[in-house]
């Protein structure tokens, strides 16, 4: 028996374009029992080969999505009996393989003595045009590192390590962001110095720039009776983990607002050529909701946190994910009617007694916003994905 384990050195979250590093260990735990039927001379164990590859599987809801390439391959299709000794990374996986990197061979014909461990380092770059990790109502994109190995005269076994990929569009050509650097004389006998993680450094700067607070945006909220409120939103582009902060001003409105609510929602829209039905609508998912009573309130604010576990906006050939703020305002349907009772208590105090019944109407408004990825090191701290896995061969 050989224990095979893999561990992602930096955590389970990466940006598309980064280099993924995984440490893979092959350990012989000790003496094998006589009943194991190993067949090797002594207690030495021989492994025929080991290979590593990154794949991305796309799984769709067949009641909502039709892929133009044909039906999705089932588990039986990719796990045929003729592949028992071959490296088939999507063996046993459901869905369609939309990304598959070139497999890298770790070794051929490896011998392990009892209590011996061999360690290998696997590195590969995640393509910048990869789809992001996403778990929606109709579409799911999932990434895994597949480690395949085989003992002599035994079938291949696969070790799967899941991880998450965030996509920041515009990082295809990093030379655009390096134009301001001084050009140093080149030496043909020296390897060019490269930053340890240039992609992450540049992506962090880009995300900080596009989500920086600029001039506030002002919105006048009105209905058929007049002006309800004024909303000040300090920015419309955010990162995962940011707080969406806004201020409501009701003092200048002539339509009393009894209550308002703001909900952070994602909109999952399937492309027209992949829709199961022509009139199929978008799938709405609500995340965080802020609700407040605001009758006789001059000014109030909202603060809605964006979960780090959410998926930033993206678009692929199959699905498009957008974000929005969904507002609901409950206003008086007859603003001119005085149904409340105000009693004066002395010169400085008054008591107010609200009406038992009031006639209200609800108005809704959707405000599109943009949500970008966050630093993958921060996202790794809250993810539930484990950065390692192990199996026995």
Q: What's the shape?
A: elongated
The span between the termini is 6 Å
Mean pLDDT: 85
What structural category characterises the helix and strand content?
mainly beta
Cα-based radius of gyration, to the nearest Å: 29 Å
Q: State the order of secondary-structure elements, H for helix, E for strand.
A: EEEEHEEEEEEHEEEEEEEEEEEEHE
Characterize the biggest β-sheet.
Answer: 7 strands, mixed
Count of all domains: 2
Number of strands: 23
CATH topology of the largest domain: Immunoglobulin-like
CATH architecture of the largest domain: Sandwich
Number of helices: 3
Poorly predicted sequence stretches spanning 5 or more consecutive residues: 32-36, 70-82, 179-183
Helicity range of the residues?
under 10%
Q: Regarding CATH, which class of the largest domain?
A: Mainly Beta
Tell me the fraction of residues in β-strands, as a range.
over 45%
Protein name: RAB6A-GEF complex partner protein 2
Pfam family, one: Rgp1
InterPro entries: Rgp1 (IPR014848)
